[in-house]
Amino acid sequence: MKFGIVSDEIDRDFAAAVRIGKTVGIERYEIRGLKSGRIPMCDEAEIREVEQIASGEGVSITGLSPGLFKMTEDDAGFRQAMNEVYPRAAELAQRWGLRGLIVFGFHKPGATEENFGSLAPAAVPPQVIDWLAEAGARAASDRLLLMIEPEPICWADTSSVAADMIVRSEASSLRINYDPGNVAWLTQTDPIDEFENAAAWIANVHVKDLMPLESGAVRPRFVPAGEGLIDFRAHFLALRKAGYAGPVSLEPHMDGSMETIRRCLESACRASSAGPVTNRSAAYQAAPQKN
């Protein structure tokens, strides 16, 4: 696999991100946050600068994550997202020759990173499916895909739920941004068992790993792929068996130093070229386990 990275995981300054990324051998970049804001609601001059840097440095832009629907929980918010953010994001995706946009599965009212684990299970509301169907139809008319990224604070909090939402919406332009790290953050387990539910819909992949959540902690400690909860060797093997050939982007949630990015890239490369993990790292084994 040829790994890319979400550029602002290194630096929101795209030039700085590419400088560090190219030094460690990364030539593919997914765009999310820039100095002036989240794409596409940022300065047009900075967007043009990204284009110039990508062209001049010979690197590829493989994805666009405008944050659509991550905090959307009512019709007014949905209309605003579709009227203000979506058109600009869609235009950029078309301009950059991308297949589509990475989006989210609509915010669960009241959900935060601090409390999502304590919320009672609830069925995805019909209105959320209606919004998804409408957004999917709009994307289809623009010849784009919307790739749903599972997120603990959203209704689409696992890949299985995202797949079910896609089926219920009956929209042909919806796919999944496969992110087992986000699902593991929610469930505190390796979500390899849900791969088959997601496989037919996967159109983009994010790579992050994390340690079991420590007692009293809100946010987990993130680590390079294969050093935490997730058997990324098994996930990469499953992706290959499913015939996946799309972008795979590191999203470490660690610091953006050259040493850290190199370590994350090397760990992902090792995981993608070997069989399933049989022994976890000493750091994983020593970490407190959540019951």
Explain this structure.
With 291 residues, the chain is α/β, with parallel strands linked by helices. It has one domain (3-285): Divalent-metal-dependent TIM barrel enzymes (TIM Barrel, Alpha-Beta Barrel), CATH 3.20.20. The protein has ten helices and twelve strands. The protein has helices spanning 14-24, 44-57, 75-95, 126-141, 159-169, 180-187, 195-198, 232-241, 258-272, 282-286, and strands at residues 3-6, 28-31, 33-34, 37-38, 60-64, 100-104, 145-149, 174-178, 202-207, 209-210, 222-223, 248-250. It has an eight-stranded parallel β-sheet. The longest helix has 21 residues, at 75-95.
Order of helices and strands: EHEEEHEHEHEHEHHEEEHEHH
Assembly state (oligomeric): single chain
| Individual helix count | 10
Top-tier CATH class: Alpha Beta
Number of strands: 12
What is the average per-residue confidence, as pLDDT, rounded to a whole number? Answer: 94
Question: From the 3D coordinates, which CATH architecture would you assign?
Answer: Alpha-Beta Barrel
General form: globular
Strand content: 15-25%
Provide the gyration radius in Å.
18 Å
- Major β-sheet, in short? 8 strands, parallel
CATH topology name, in short, is TIM Barrel
Please identify which CATH superfamily we are dealing with: Divalent-metal-dependent TIM barrel enzymes
Low-pLDDT parts are: 275-291
Topology:
Layout: E1 3-6, H1 14-24, E2 28-31, E3 33-34, E4 37-38, H2 44-57, E5 60-64, H3 75-95, E6 100-104, H4 126-141, E7 145-149, H5 159-169, E8 174-178, H6 180-187, H7 195-198, E9 202-207, E10 209-210, E11 222-223, H8 232-241, E12 248-250, H9 258-272, H10 282-286
Parallel strand pairs: 1-2, 1-12, 2-5, 6-7, 7-8, 8-9, 9-12
Antiparallel strand pairs: 3-4, 10-11
Helix pairs in contact: 1-9, 4-5, 8-9
